[in-house]
Amino acid sequence: MADIIDGKAFAEGLRARVATVAADFEAKAGRKAGLAVVLVGEDPASQVYVRNKGKQTLACGMASFEHKLPADTSEADLLALVDRLNADPAVDGILVQLPLPAHMNEQKVIATINPDKDVDGFHVVNVGRLATGLPGYVPCTPLGCVMLLKDKLGSLSGLDAVVIGRSNIVGKPMAQLLIAESCTVTVAHSRTKDLPAAVRRADIVVAAVGRPEMVKGDWLKPGATVIDVGINRVPAAEEGKTRLVGDVDFASASEVAGAITPVPGGVGPMTIAVLLRNTIVAAHRAADLAFDESAL
Ligand code: GUN
């Protein structure tokens, strides 16, 4: 039976460390670190995320600036808000919740965020910094996955990793981070010819495809470490109810894996904790205050 990787507990620890650093920052800078979150429209899942981000930002002793705009806001008005946040010295980090309504160009909106306030790590400047090994901001979910992997395995050097999924938010930055940790990385996706064979070679499997319970236990190398990024809502046994499952079939995978993240309680709680980590890093950089980023 696999060890369970407790992302919820790790995220709580990370938030506690961020809170300590945030208090120290406030004492030194004479102001709180600040995170601005912009939500356009009323997508229910996004509303839940944004509410949780706001609560956890305050709980860490940082300032939270929430901007909720109606779904029919013009792109020009959203860009003007981002420009104001770029210019506001109380704002260290800016996050525009995705997806945006269909009449907006997400790439254009992301490109308007000052890269040094882009705590989501989505701006092409930060994508390029990650790819070339320069300090910048790394997308929160894949950075959280690497933290869990290093906590479990120590050095990842020389390990074979497969990343299933090639999205800009998870798959591609995940692959870059694993390369930086000296893994041998395969990026698999919907056109991969023999996915079970690719997964079977891997010491580390990161599943981020959004297909409920797709990765089966008999695809895995015995003892592999499995990171399940999927959050899929499926019908539950009880009529009319739903339950959350990952991209990995937990029941069969946990018989073969050495360690595995559960859903919920694995990767999910890490995303906001890493966002707060990125924000306190941004605040120190903005105020030109030194601190040991690796201690977070
Ligand atoms: N929507 C789903 N995940 C994310 C995220 O990490 N950042 C932003 N901005 N939007 C999201």
From TrEMBL:
It catalyses: (6R)-5,10-methenyltetrahydrofolate + H2O = (6R)-10-formyltetrahydrofolate + H(+); (6R)-5,10-methylene-5,6,7,8-tetrahydrofolate + NADP(+) = (6R)-5,10-methenyltetrahydrofolate + NADPH. Residues 5-120 form the Tetrahydrofolate dehydrogenase/cyclohydrolase catalytic domain. SUPFAM superfamilies: Aminoacid dehydrogenase-like, N-terminal domain, NAD(P)-binding Rossmann-fold domains. Residues 139-285 form the Tetrahydrofolate dehydrogenase/cyclohydrolase NAD(P)-binding domain. Pathway: One-carbon metabolism; tetrahydrofolate interconversion. Keywords: Amino-acid biosynthesis, Histidine biosynthesis, Hydrolase, Methionine biosynthesis, Multifunctional enzyme, NADP, One-carbon metabolism, Oxidoreductase, Purine biosynthesis. It holds the Pfam family THF_DHG_CYH_C. NADP(+) binds at G165, R166, S167, I231. Its EC number is 1.5.1.5, 3.5.4.9. Gene3D superfamilies: Leucine Dehydrogenase, chain A, domain 1, NAD(P)-binding Rossmann-like Domain. It comes from the Bacteria. InterPro entries: Aminoacid_DH-like_N_sf, NAD(P)-bd_dom_sf, THF_DH/CycHdrlase, THF_DH/CycHdrlase_cat_dom, THF_DH/CycHdrlase_CS, THF_DH/CycHdrlase_NAD-bd_dom. Catalyzes the oxidation of 5,10-methylenetetrahydrofolate to 5,10-methenyltetrahydrofolate and then the hydrolysis of 5,10-methenyltetrahydrofolate to 10-formyltetrahydrofolate. Belongs to the tetrahydrofolate dehydrogenase/cyclohydrolase family. This is Bifunctional protein FolD. It comes from Novosphingobium beihaiensis.
